[in-house]
Structure to design on (767 residues):
């Protein structure tokens, strides 16, 4: 290419010169507005919290492994499940998915950065601050009353437990403010992703030609506006209650504890879709590449994603069947919840149809995607079980529910995130991850996952409630909880192999080159890692798979779309 | 074939017939503001829902019917400020700087008058009627909803005053009209929210 040589000069930036003092490197990362660096910081910070919250889960499993255990006190146990839930949702799930979105969306639509780079940096730093503040509660929440350490009100913090009388000290305030700030950051990043997608696409990148990942991030980010904001509003109310003595959730003054439940779950359920849509997004990109076929049913996939976005706003009260909302409300939310399985089912069939008849390559990203498909299906099936109100009355607040949503969060979302790591790591670092270690990771993790979460359903069916700190022997829960705990050890081992692989491959991995997977979207046309400006010449595209067109000029996609 | 150090140029024009011309996308400020408005609207909806849910549920007085009066003057001022900010934008688009500055000043003035009427209302309620955020559910929901809106008015006024200051020093140019329009969108939103607050608090709730 004649143009390529001329561009070389641009790469001679300070960043490419060897031997820079470490202070400069640190300063560069602290002040960066580059979407790739911010994306990586999101991912790194989420990984740290993943290890922290994972360690909390391990402690809880040790405590529950045998009956009448006294490994931790009830007070500590309450803090553990509160911090585990809050951390995993707000400081692992959201940032890791925003991190990938930040990194990939501009690259995939042929843009040089996000629409608002400085807002992007602001959103990251305020979210990071929120995470630190949540954990500072371990030291700072004592307050003058000397009461409280980390928050212990549960991740959904039902009223009136959060009232000043029942939660003295500042632990609940740290929880409230941390979630408020992380919400501000989430809204900022979501705003950025939507604006980038709508306003920064390269020439020819019509909405109907965007990679499905970009579509799903568009839906997810739009959903963030209408999900995170209600939570932010509810946190403002809770703060007013606790500091100014207002009565939103104060039942003694006529306030309503159920109103908090509604406000929380108006956030809480769509939040599940905020987390799972990016997981769908990764699978949408990875499955076609490793099946060597274009995605099956692109328009149906887009329609199903948008449909999920809308329907997810009308299902929240299925978290509240046990409250006693009356037959009318119960019927509506049962029906709405069951309806959402239709677009989700469409997605699963489209992925299967993409794999069907393809030349499937079982590299590590594809293995995790197959795990995702299988486990997401089961998670969906237990979801349909729980969506039936009478069944939910029986099993609400039991370990069956815990097993169900961990099947979604770990079995589906975390598996898709692992797939994304193996798939995009070569692009991000320029080196391949070790396939051998990846297989160890996969098998350790999938065995551990099924030991833990398959067996966790059963104590739930046998009546074991969630959030208990111990239980008596002779209930028939002991062996099952031991198996669940053993599974957690396998998962922890798998996770450590993964982290080791991340670090080791950075130094010793095979050189990846531009396009190690022979993929088709624009990010693979950039060098690995991509330069600060992404594209020296703004690309222009004519189909959904611009790199296919480049590699197969005799048979371009544009002829078929 | 490719040099490893650089991005492979992707040019659709090289494949088959040339890529479609012209390629225009929406202004990012407008889209970003629309997103912010959506998120803010969701916050207000939750506060409005709480207000409606708690209408008539207070365990003690005073009730809205006893203490609230229709804030007609303030409402007229705030809603007309939507018009003036619109005139400011269209004046800037046509390059009429003097007209733009004048309309901006009118907007800031009208918005400030609205804030003063709210402040006087609050003073009356707190000082004369003894209604605070702690008194009852009406006080709780009233002060938080109206206060949230007033906070947004303050933010809007701060930004409008900044633009007014800049335009007094001649720093606002014709090419900034798109940016001023983004700010005007925010201001229209604050006014629209007031219409909802007015209907809920002073009409429905009384």
């Amino acid at each position: 290419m004649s143009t390529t040589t001329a561009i070389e000069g641009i790469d001679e930036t300070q960043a490419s010169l060897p031997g820079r003092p470490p202070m400069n490197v640190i300063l560069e990362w602290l002040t960066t507005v580059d979407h790739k660096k911010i994306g990586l910081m999101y991912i790194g910070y989420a990984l740290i919290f993943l290890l922290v919250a994972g360690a909390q889960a391990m402690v809880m499993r040790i405590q529950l492994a045998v009956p009448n255990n006294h490994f931790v006190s009830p007070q500590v146990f309450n803090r553990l499940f509160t911090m585990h839930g809050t951390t995993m949702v707000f400081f692992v799930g959201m940032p890791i998915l925003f991190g990938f979105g930040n990194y990939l969306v501009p690259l995939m639509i042929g843009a040089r950065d996000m629409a608002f780079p400085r807002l992007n940096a602001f959103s990251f730093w305020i979210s990071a601050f929120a995470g630190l503040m949540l954990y500072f509660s371990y030291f700072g929440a004592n307050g003058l009353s000397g009461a409280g350490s980390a928050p212990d009100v549960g991740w959904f913090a039902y009223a009136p437990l959060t009232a000043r009388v029942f939660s003295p000290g500042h632990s609940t305030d740290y929880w409230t403010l941390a979630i408020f700030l992380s919400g501000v950051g989430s809204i900022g990043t979501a705003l950025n992703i939507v604006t980038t997608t709508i306003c920064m696409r390269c020439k020819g990148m019509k909405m109907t030609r965007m990679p499905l990942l970009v579509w799903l991030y568009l839906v997810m980010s739009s959903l963030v506006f209408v999900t995170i904001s209600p939570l932010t509003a509810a946190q403002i109310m809770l703060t007013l209650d606790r500091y100014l003595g207002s009565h939103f959730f104060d039942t003694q003054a006529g306030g309503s504890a159920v109103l908090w439940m509604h406000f929380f779950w108006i956030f809480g359920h769509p939040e599940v879709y905020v987390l799972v849509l990016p997981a769908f997004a990764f699978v949408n990109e990875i499955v076609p590449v490793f099946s060597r076929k274009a995605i099956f049913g692109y328009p149906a996939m887009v329609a199903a994603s948008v449909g999920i976005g809308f329907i997810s706003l009308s299902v929240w009260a299925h978290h509240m069947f046990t409250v006693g909302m009356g037959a009318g409300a119960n019927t509506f939310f049962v029906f709405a919840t069951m309806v959402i399985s239709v677009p989700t089912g469409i997605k699963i069939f489209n992925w299967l149809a993409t794999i069907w008849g393809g030349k499937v390559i079982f590299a590590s990203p594809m293995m995790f995607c197959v795990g995702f498909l299988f486990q997401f299906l089961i998670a969906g099936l237990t979801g349909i079980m729980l969506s039936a109100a009478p069944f939910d009355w029986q099993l609400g607040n039991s370990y069956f529910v815990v097993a169900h949503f961990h099947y979604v969060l770990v079995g589906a979302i975390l598996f898709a995130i692992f797939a994304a790591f193996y798939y995009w790591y070569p692009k991000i670092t320029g080196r391949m991850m070790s396939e051998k270690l990846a297989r160890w990771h996969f098998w350790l993790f999938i065995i551990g996952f099924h030991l833990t979460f398959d067996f966790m359903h059963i104590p739930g069916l046998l009546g074991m409630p969630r959030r208990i700190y111990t239980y008596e022997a002779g209930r028939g829960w002991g062996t099952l909880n031991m198996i669940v705990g053993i599974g957690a050890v396998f998962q922890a081992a798998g996770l450590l192999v993964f982290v080791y692989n991340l670090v080791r491959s950075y130094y010793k991995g095979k050189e990846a080159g531009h396009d190690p997977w022979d993929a088709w979207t624009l990010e693979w046309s950039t060098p690995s890692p991509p330069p600060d400006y992404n594209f020296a010449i703004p690309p222009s595209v004519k189909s959904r798979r611009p790199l296919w067109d480049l590699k197969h000029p005799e048979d371009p996609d544009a002829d078929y779309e | 074939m490719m040099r490893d150090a650089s991005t492979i140029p992707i040019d659709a024009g090289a494949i088959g017939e040339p890529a479609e011309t012209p390629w225009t996308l929406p202004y990012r400020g407008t889209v970003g503001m629309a997103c912010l408005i959506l998120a803010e609207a969701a916050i207000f909806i939750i506060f409005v829902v709480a207000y409606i849910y708690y209408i008539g549920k207070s365990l003690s007085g005073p009730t809205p019917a006893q203490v609230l009066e229709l804030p007609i003057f303030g409402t007229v001022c705030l809603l007309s400020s939507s018009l003036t900010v619109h005139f400011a934008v269209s004046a800037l688009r046509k390059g009429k700087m003097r007209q733009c500055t004048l309309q901006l000043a009118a907007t800031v003035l009208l918005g400030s008058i609205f804030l003063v009427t709210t402040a006087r209302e609050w003073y009356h309620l707190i000082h004369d009627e003894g209604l605070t955020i702690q008194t009852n559910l009406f006080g709780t929901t009233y002060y938080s909803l109206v206060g949230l809106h007033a906070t947004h008015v303050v933010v809007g006024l701060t930004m409008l005053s900044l633009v007014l200051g800049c335009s007094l020093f001649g720093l606002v140019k014709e090419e900034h009209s798109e940016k001023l329009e983004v700010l005007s969108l925010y201001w229209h939103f604050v006014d629209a929210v007031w219409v909802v607050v007015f209907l809920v608090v002073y009409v429905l709730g009384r």
Observations:
- Confidence is low (pLDDT under 50) at residues 1-6 of chain A.
- Chain A has 17 helices and no strands.
- Chain A touches chain B through 71 residues (CB under 8 Å).
- The radius of gyration of chain A is 24 Å.
